[in-house]
Design a protein that fits this description.
This protein has 384 residues and is an alpha/beta fold. Helices cover 36% and strands 15% of the residues.
Length: 384
């Protein structure tokens, strides 16, 4: 089934009513027909029919065998880190969502897990940092917020040669544009809050593996059943609603993002533009080889920190807010908002600084977005 068909129809089995949408099963528990007999549903923390429909749809979109719908993107990251044990070594990219760094550095490091940050674009470096204790390579591609691109195939080969797992955070592109499992990753995770939802009204995470019967799937199933980070039935229904428009949303956002990225380069206030759809992006060819689209995320630098900070107060159409991937365009100041806890040495190594802004392009008219950015940047530069 093609992505568009899966997004629109999902995995709903048509019942006697002929309803096109999956029902919302707001039940905490389920009646058993008799002793040692079950409908397949026992208790809502373990399984819910609405959530099952969403998980089946996510698995189909990601090209996997089993998916879990979770309470947040960080719940998905937490499950990945929970696969590790004391003494394990984990490779993380230097450019990475700040919340993931916080979970690694402030929570899981206390359990004796060794997290090492490297430039994941350097495949030789990644290979040289593998140890016998390496359990996991964790990547984002494109990365947040500097838009670094990681070679998924190459890192999968390195991980598997050393008996390690490769987990890929696919939030910036969604499965409509990139399928890490098909490129060799063992786990793909998404902050479903972003493009999968697309309406800024659900906090959600997803986690998908290739084989539903694998030991990996069984271990994750145990963690999910025991820890209970599952998505609620109502939010599962909202996510099913959202997935019906995933393809048309992200393709329109990509079209506008390329237009805006090219236009930003013409502005006197802007010094650098980072967008994987620009043909002179350093990893443009690599990105094209492993993805079918470039998404709606742009980062750019202005001349001074004062201009970056002042522009946020002059926006009229675009919202100054965290998050991304929704129908509304959002502008974020990463060094204070999404990456406040990023260690200073990593900030220096990646180039993330106080002149950087991150734009999530929504579905507004592209000329209206350009007009808003132009007037805000002009006023900010004058004030600065």
């Amino acid at each position: 089934m093609k992505d568009f068909s899966a997004e629109v129809h999902g995995c709903h089995t048509y019942d006697a009513t002929g309803a096109l949408t999956t029902p919302v099963y707001l039940s905490a528990t389920f009646r058993h027909p008799a002793f040692r007999r079950s409908t397949g549903y026992d208790y809502g923390r373990v399984a819910n029919p609405t959530r099952t429909a969403l998980e089946q749809t996510i698995a189909l979109l990601e090209g996997g065998g089993r998916a879990w719908a979770l309470s947040s993107g960080m719940a998905a990251v937490n499950l990945v880190f929970a696969l590790c044990r004391a003494g394990d070594h984990v490779l993380l990219p230097e450019d990475l969502y700040g919340g993931t760094m916080r979970l690694a550095n402030e929570i899981y490091s206390r359990y004796g897990i060794d997290f090492e940050y490297i430039d994941m674009r350097d495949i030789a470096l990644a290979r040289s940092r593998m140890r016998k204790e390496t359990k996991l390579i964790f990547i984002e591609t494109p990365s947040n917020p500097m838009m670094f691109v990681t070679d998924i195939r190459a890192l999968a080969e390195i991980a598997h040669a050393h008996g390690a797992l490769l987990a890929a955070d696919n939030t910036f592109l969604s499965p409509h544009f990139q399928k890490p499992l098909e490129l060799g990753a063992d786990i793909v995770l998404e902050s479903g809050t972003k493009y999968l939802c697309g309406h800024n009204d659900v906090i959600c995470g997803t986690l998908t593996v290739r084989d539903a019967d694998s030991d990996l799937a069984k271990e994750i199933e145990l963690l999910v059943k025991s820890e209970g980070p599952n998505l609620s039935p109502m939010d599962s229904w909202l996510m099913l609603r959202s997935l019906k428009t995933l393809g048309v949303r992200v393709e329109r956002q990509e079209e506008s993002a390329l237009t805006i990225a090219q236009w930003l380069r013409t502005l006197p206030e802007v010094t650098d533009v980072y967008y994987v759809g620009l043909s002179d992006h350093p990893q443009y060819a690599l990105h094209q080889s492993q993805s079918t689209g470039c998404g709606g995320m742009i980062s750019f630098k202005v001349k001074t920190p004062e201009t970056a900070q002042n522009v946020l107060a002059h926006l009229k159409l675009i919202a100054f807010a965290e998050s991304l991937g929704g129908v509304e365009s959002l502008l974020t100041y990463p060094i204070v908002q999404t990456h406040a806890e990023m260690p200073r040495d990593l900030i220096t190594r990646t180039g993330l600084d106080d002149r950087l802004l991150r734009l999530s392009v929504g579905l507004e008219d592209v000329e209206d977005l350009k007009e808003d950015l132009a007037q805000a940047l002009k006023k900010a530069a004058q004030k600065g």
